[in-house]
Design a protein that fits this description.
Structural Genomics Hypothetical 15.5 Kd Protein In mrcA-pckA Intergenic Region, Chain A, Pseudouridine synthase, four-stranded antiparallel beta sheet, 7 helices
Amino acid sequence: MSSAGATELVISDAEAGQRLDRYLATACPEMSRSRLRQLIDDGRVTHGGATIKDPNHRVKSGAHYKIDVPAPIAATPLGQDIPLTVVYEDDDLIVIDKPAGLVVHPAAGNLDGTLVNALIAHCGASLQGVGGEVRPGIVHRLDKDTSGLLIAAKNERAMHSLAKQFANHTIERAYNAIVWGSPRLGEGRIETQIGRNPYDRKRMGVMRTGGKEARTRYRVIERFGEETRPLASLIECRLETGRTHQIRVHMTHLGHPLLGDQTYGRSHQAPRAKTPEQEIAFKAVMEFPRQALHAYLLGFQHPSLHETMRFESAWPEDFSGLVMALRTLG
């Protein structure tokens, strides 16, 4: 049961009525309670094809439960020859322009083919173990489908310095995003508590109580569509904190989710196309395959040179194409 794979359990009459977490602890003694709780939280326990995420769920006699245990992650990731766009590199650090679709570090569901695997191959053995075996060199993350600038440390001194700058919120980070509609104010500051959604562990959300403080400043750069009712807007977001999915959650909270965001977005209706060009633009907007978010600016204090370094990244082709499509529609 402790190895990777799917295991089915059938509830006996004597076991009926127990809480799911307690039943699993008895049925799977080789696994810790915390491990079983994590499997429940991750949606890896199902009943009749339906995911059971409530540890208080009461099991019923004759019911079939399935536990899907993911394959273990290798303690030390292996280097893989994955192309990287290196913006800057020296003995202390490396700045990468990450493409959309590239996962930053190994995790369940993405055990290899990540930025970490690419960095190990690119930087050699010197990177191994810097900041941890599973995530060597990783100081901060970008979501899989977010493109743009990311910095990694190549030694422990650089790791410590950069991690401290992130903790003190002295790193300069700016993103371009395309959102549905347009914020009522041309610029503003969003300040909330962000925490994990108790009903869906893959989503974050604004919390009334608990969570962690999250602050984002935004500014509208360009509006697309009718002046009185814009279809979408190009905005700049600057992070004062760095919470998971912060920009995506904050813009959704403001009522303007990112285009293409399958997790936090919602469907919108674009204006009826009047020309063949607009038909093509309409299709490009409605079928954009990822959240329209690009980390275009990164600034920090170099750990050894003690100089401020600042890098900018041009929009990738898909993001630029989306802006052009929106301009065609409005």
